[in-house]
Write a structure and sequence with these properties.
Length: 717
C-alpha cells in the first residue's frame, strides 16, 4: 500500500474478499498459521490484509483468545520492525481490529490492541500511511479504557503520548503535532471529573493512579483541577490539589498566571502563588510582585516564597525589595533567605535593621535579632560588633530581649571577634576580663567589706583548664547571667559541668532518681512518657530549654525518659549537692538559681499537667477543623506566666498534625472585663486516638503574662 494523504486513509472493515483468498482455503490457512509463528510473508499480498483481520475475529469468536493474542502480537512486531510495506499493512490490520473493538466493545482485546499501537508509535520515526487516523483511533481506545475504569493499564499508555508531545521521546515535528492532537482528545469532561473525585478522596484505592493520570493529561485536566480547588471546602482535599497541580509542569503555568489576573478571593490567590513557587522561575517575578503589597499578609507570604524559590542574579535585589515593602511579620522569613546569600549589601542591611529594631513588636524583635546574629558574622566588621554592643547597652532595646536572643548576640560577638583575629571577650557582656583568674571575689565599693577567702573546693576547681573553658563559653551566659554579679558568675560557672551525648543516648530514664538541673546548650532531646523510646517523641526540647526542677528540688523519680535526638547534643548539668554547698556562703545566688529554674523549667510548668492531668475549666467554642476556627471544648490543665497546656477532642477526619509548630492566639479576660490577646507558639502535641481522639497541646507565650490577674477565655489558630 502506498502512502497517501492522511485524511483519505480509512481501514476497509467490510471483510469481503474473493473465494481464492478465503480464510478457510488450505493455502491461506497455512500462511496464517505460519504468520502466527513469525513468518510475515503473508503481508506480501495486499489481499491478505482483510483475510488476516477476518481470521483474527474468527479465532476470537470461537473462544481461542490465546491464538488471537499471538496473532495480534505478531502484527505488532511487524508494525514496529518490518520493512515499510509490511509495517503499513500490519497497521491496516491492527486498525481494522481496533475499529471492530470500538464498535463492538470487545473488552478482552481493548487493552492489547491499545498497547500494540502505543509500542508502534513509540518506535516509529517515519511518517507512514494512516498515521494520523490510527493515532486518533488510539486516543478513542484509551478513552474507552478510562470509561471502563482500566486506569492502571492506561497510565503508561498516556505517559508515552505525553513524552512524545513534550519531546522527551524524540520525533519529527509532524509526528509530534499528530500525537499532541491525539493526546488532547483522550479525556472528556466525564472522565476528568471521575479522576478528580477519586484523587481527592485519599481513602479511594485508585486515588494514586487517578493523580498520575491527571498529571499525564495536564493540558486538559489543569482547568478542571483549578475549578475544583476554587470551590473545595475540604481542607485535606485542597492540600492534595495544591500538591498535584504543580506536578503538571509547564502545562499548568499559563493558567496559574492567568488566574493571578482575576479578581479572586485572597485564599485562592494565595494558593496560586504557592503553586507557582514550586517552579522557581525568575520569569514569574513581574506577575507575583504586586502581591508583595497585598492587604492580606498570607498572600504576601506566598509572594515572598515565590522569590525565595527563584534562582538567578536578581534574587537578592528582589528579596531586599520585599524586605522594604512587606508586612513586618514577614521580615524573619526574608532575613533567613538573605542570610544564605553572599551579597556585600546584606551586612549593611542587617546592621540597619538592628539600628531600628525598636520599631517592631517585642516578639518580632527577638526573632529578627536572633536571625541576624546567626548570619551577621559572615559579613563581620567592626561596625557589626559596635551595633551589637549598642543594642545590648541600650536599656530600651534590652528590656525586650529574652535569654535566647541575648545568647545569640553573645555568639555573634564572639564570631565577629574571631574573624577579626581578636579572641578577647567584650567587657560589656559580663564584666569578665580575659586575664588569669582571680581567686578572690570583688564587690562594689558601696557594699560592706566581705570575706574574700575562697572555699577549698572552689580554689581547686578554678585552677583547672575545664573551668577556664567554661567561663569563656559564651552560650553559658544565657542562663540568667545578667542577674549575677561577677563573683556569683565565677562560682556558678565553676560548678556547672558540660556533657555531650550522641544521637540515641539516654539522658534520663523514667524511674531514675537523681537531682540534677539540665540546660540545653545545643542539639535536640526527645521526650517520652515511658522507657519505650522506639515510638516517636511527643515533644522535643531545644537549645536554651531548662528542665529538671521538680526532681532537683524533691529528689523524686523521673516520670519521663529523655533521649538525645541529634549527634553531639550538649547539656550543662548542675547538681543539688552543689546548691547545698553554696547555701552557707552564697544564699542570694542560691535563691536566684532556684527562682530562675522554677520559672523557666519547661517540664514543670507545662508537661507535668499531661503526665498527671488536673481538673480544669472548659472552653466551649465551635471547631470544624479549619485553621481559622477556635479550639473546641478545651480542657485547660495548666495556665502559667510562661504558657499553657490544654486538651480537646478532634473532629473525625482532622489530622492533629495541622497544629504542629503553629501559632495560637489566646484571648485573656481581665478582672475588669476587658479582653486582651497574646500569642503563643505551639511547642508539642500528644494525640490519643483511642481516648475520644483527644489532643493535648503545649504552648509557650511569646511574652510574659500575669496569670493572677486574668483567665484564659478563647483560644484560636
Amino acid at each position: 500500500m502506498n502512502s497517501g494523504k492522511v485524511e483519505n486513509y480509512r481501514p476497509n472493515s467490510s471483510l469481503g474478499f474473493p473465494a481464492s483468498l478465503s480464510p478457510d482455503s488450505p493455502n491461506v490457512v497455512d500462511k496464517l498459521r505460519n504468520f502466527s509463528h513469525g513468518d510475515t510473508s503473508a503481508l506480501d499480498a495486499p489481499g491478505l490484509v482483510d483475510v488476516i483481520a477476518h481470521y483474527i475475529f474468527k479465532l476470537y469468536r470461537s473462544g481461542q483468545l490465546g491464538e488471537t493474542l499471538i496473532l495480534l502480537e505478531q502484527l505488532g512486531e511487524a508494525a514496529q520492525n518490518g520493512p515499510k510495506i509490511h509495517r503499513e499493512r500490519a497497521l491496516i490490520v491492527l486498525s481494522m481490529v481496533a475499529e471492530k473493538i470500538l464498535e463492538e466493545s470487545n473488552e478482552d482485546l481493548l487493552e492489547p490492541i491499545a498497547q500494540m499501537l502505543v509500542r508502534w508509535i513509540k518506535k516509529e520515526n517515519e511518517y507512514v500511511a494512516g498515521f494520523e487516523f490510527i493515532s486518533l483511533q488510539l486516543s478513542r481506545l484509551i478513552h474507552k479504557m478510562l470509561e471502563q475504569g482500566l486506569w492502571y493499564q492506561v497510565e503508561d499508555l498516556v505517559g508515552v503520548l505525553q513524552d512524545i508531545k513534550k519531546g522527551v521521546i524524540e520525533k519529527n515535528k509532524l509526528i509530534r503535532q499528530i500525537i499532541s492532537r491525539a493526546h488532547a482528545s483522550i479525556a472528556e469532561d466525564s472522565s476528568l471529573n471521575k479522576l478528580i473525585v477519586s484523587y481527592i478522596d485519599e481513602s479511594n484505592h485508585k486515588s494514586e493512579v487517578a493523580g498520575a493520570l491527571l498529571t499525564r493529561l495536564s493540558d486538559k485536566s489543569t482547568p478542571y483541577l483549578l475549578q475544583t480547588l476554587a470551590h473545595c471546602d475540604n481542607k485535606e482535599q485542597r492540600f492534595r490539589l495544591l500538591n498535584l497541580i504543580p506536578a503538571a509542569g509547564t502545562d499548568a503555568v499559563p493558567l496559574l498566571l492567568q488566574k493571578l489576573k482575576d479578581d479572586s478571593p485572597w485564599y485562592f490567590t494565595r494558593n496560586i502563588l504557592g503553586m507557582l513557587a514550586h517552579f522557581g522561575d525568575p520569569a514569574f517575578f513581574d506577575s507575583t510582585r504586586p502581591f508583595l503589597r497585598h492587604g492580606d499578609v498570607r498572600v504576601q507570604q506566598e509572594a515572598v516564597n515565590c522569590i525565595v524559590a527563584m534562582d538567578g542574579q536578581e534574587k537578592t535585589s528582589r528579596l531586599l525589595e520585599a524586605l522594604n515593602i512587606c508586612d513586618h511579620r514577614l521580615k524573619p522569613r526574608i532575613i533567613k533567605a538573605l542570610g544564605t546569600t553572599t551579597d556585600d549589601r546584606i551586612g549593611s542591611v542587617f546592621i540597619g535593621l538592628l539600628n531600628s529594631i525598636t520599631i517592631f513588636e517585642p516578639h518580632l524583635q527577638n526573632q529578627i535579632v536572633q536571625l541576624i546574629c546567626e548570619y551577621l558574622p559572615q559579613y563581620s566588621s567592626e561596625k557589626s560588633f559596635s551595633q551589637l554592643e549598642k543594642l545590648v547597652a541600650d536599656g530600651r532595646c534590652r528590656e525586650n530581649l529574652d535569654e535566647r536572643t541575648l545568647a545569640a548576640i553573645e555568639r555573634a560577638c564572639a564570631a565577629v571577634r574571631r574573624t577579626s583575629d581578636n579572641e578577647a571577650l567584650p567587657d560589656w557582656i559580663v564584666g569578665i576580663e580575659p586575664a588569669e583568674p582571680s581567686y578572690g571575689f570583688r564587690h562594689d565599693s558601696s557594699e560592706p567589706a566581705a570575706d574574700t577567702s575562697t572555699p577549698k573546693w572552689f580554689s581547686q576547681v578554678v585552677q583547672s583548664e575545664a573551668f577556664l573553658m567554661m567561663k569563656n563559653h559564651l552560650l553559658l551566659h544565657r542562663v540568667f547571667y545578667h542577674q549575677l554579679n561577677r563573683d556569683e558568675f565565677d562560682v556558678y560557672s565553676a560548678l556547672l559541668s558540660r556533657k555531650t551525648f550522641d544521637k540515641g543516648d539516654i539522658i534520663a530514664s523514667a524511674g531514675d532518681v537523681h537531682s540534677t538541673l539540665y540546660f540545653v546548650d545545643r542539639g535536640e532531646i526527645g521526650l517520652f512518657d515511658n522507657t519505650d523510646t522506639t515510638s516517636a517523641p511527643w515533644y522535643e526540647l531545644k537549645e536554651g530549654d531548662l528542665f529538671g526542677y521538680d526532681t532537683f528540688m524533691n529528689g523524686s523519680e523521673w516520670t519521663l525518659t529523655l533521649q538525645a535526638a541529634k549527634e553531639d547534643t550538649e547539656l550543662f548539668l548542675f547538681d543539688q549537692e552543689h546548691l547545698l554547698g553554696l547555701q552557707p556562703q552564697y544564699p542570694e545566688l542560691c535563691q536566684k538559681i532556684l527562682k530562675y529554674s522554677k520559672e523557666n523549667d519547661i517540664l514543670s510548668t507545662m508537661h507535668a499537667a499531661v503526665v498527671s492531668p488536673l481538673p480544669g475549666e472548659s472552653l466551649t467554642v465551635p471547631f470544624t477543623g479549619d485553621i481559622g476556627d477556635h479550639i473546641a471544648d478545651a480542657l485547660l490543665f495548666k495556665f502559667t506566666s510562661s504558657g499553657l497546656c490544654f486538651c480537646f477532642s478532634l473532629p473525625p477526619g482532622i489530622s492533629y498534625e495541622i497544629f504542629a509548630g503553629r501559632e495560637l492566639h489566646v484571648a485573656l479576660l481581665q478582672a475588669s472585663g476587658k479582653s486582651t490577646k497574646v500569642k503563643a507558639q505551639i511547642l508539642g502535641l500528644r494525640f490519643f486516638e483511642k481516648h475520644n481522639r483527644s489532643l493535648c497541646i503545649l504552648a509557650r507565650f511569646t511574652e510574659k503574662i500575669d496569670p493572677t490577674t486574668c483567665c484564659c477565655d478563647i483560644i484560636s489558630l
